[in-house]
Design a protein that fits this description.
By secondary structure, this protein is mainly alpha-helical. The protein is built from 16 helices and no strands.
């Protein structure tokens, strides 16, 4: 009995010596393993995100007629995207530059926005102006070169074909409508996850039909583009879709529908605070009223609408458009 008590007593008194270094390591391990701090990021997109912001801003400015600002923002987007080898975005930027070039005819150079002009030596702008001296065709070829390096080359190849059609239409080239439209629809699946380009496909198809004077089919495609822009909340684009649809309705002599569609266009352009589009809508309203004959009441209403358009153009700094609208109103 005594020996058992001694064994228990010895067991209780036996202690391991404390190693301070070992204690610190164990404590540190416990602390680290229980930490709730965020993991280190393995993907950084700050520069690409900034480039995308400039790109989106430029697209909105293109629709709003703020072409010089759009040019500057496209260049900023391009430089940022190139600095991180983002070829998907470089392709998109180059395609938007095509639209810029088709709409801005003030000289051969890719004009800088006023803010950028102040920060540069005007004699040396070619040094870091990525689109200097490039035509719409050059910009399309640039987009095609980036598309081959992109993550989705087939989709971008199809998009480039749409912009090629846009260039041809702007140059007055006669297209075989059914052939072009058939090719567009065969590429449609590539745009299943790209609503912006799917809507652009319908809009381009509408322009193809319109160039061939197939106004009813053109109107259908413009309204399809509008449905996508509404669903995806591309506010700046919706007005143009309905404006185009109204033009088609007017061309087939459907005045009532045309006036209804231009009213819808005006509603969305006002929501987007798109000055040049608002003025264009009022001017178009006047043109629709007097097309194909009108009453004296309609003529007066058309004149007032055009004069109102002139005031909006003038307030927005579009002096030439303001004068044209005023002259058209006074000619009625």
């Amino acid at each position: 009995m005594e020996s058992i008590v001694k064994k228990i007593s010895l067991k209780k008194e036996t202690k391991f010596p404390l190693n301070p270094a070992l204690f610190f390591v164990c404590l540190l391990s416990l602390t680290v393993s229980c930490s709730s701090s965020p993991k280190r990021a393995m993907l950084v997109t700050d520069t690409s995100d900034s480039a995308a912001t400039f790109y989106d801003t430029a697209n909105s400015e293109l629709v709003s007629g703020q072409l010089e600002n759009a040019g500057g923002h496209l260049q900023q987007a391009y430089n940022l995207a190139m600095s991180v080898d983002d070829c998907d975005l470089l392709c998109r930027i180059s395609l938007s530059a095509v639209i810029y070039k088709l709409n801005y005819r003030a000289g051969d150079d890719f004009t800088l926005d006023p803010v950028t002009k102040l920060a540069k030596d005007v004699d040396n702008v070619t040094a870091d102006t990525p689109f200097y001296g490039l035509s719409a065709h050059d910009l399309l070829n640039l987009a095609r070169s980036y598309s081959t390096r992109s993550k989705n080359p087939q989709m971008f190849k199809a998009v480039c074909s749409l912009y090629d059609t846009t260039i041809k239409l702007s140059e007055g080239e006669k297209l075989e409508g059914n052939t072009v439209i058939s090719q567009m629809y065969s590429d449609q699946n590539y745009f299943s996850k790209e609503p912006y380009y799917l809507a652009y496909m319908y809009r381009t198809g509408g322009n193809v039909y319109a160039s061939g004077k197939n106004y009813e089919k053109a109107r259908e495609l413009f309204l399809k583009a509008a449905q996508i822009h509404l669903k995806e909340r591309y506010l700046n684009e919706i007005g143009l879709d309905y404006y185009s649809a109204a033009r088609m309705s007017s061309l087939v002599g459907n005045k009532k529908t045309a006036l209804s569609e231009i009213d819808i266009a005006l509603k969305y352009d006002k929501d987007a605070e798109n000055t040049v589009a608002i003025a264009a809508d009022y001017f178009a309203y006047g043109l629709i009223l007097v097309k194909g004959g009108c009453t004296e009441e309609e003529k007066l209403k058309a004149k007032n609408s055009m004069l109102w358009a002139s005031k909006i153009y003038e307030a927005g700094g579009y002096t030439e458009d303001a004068l044209n609208a005023k002259n058209a109103a006074e000619a009625l």
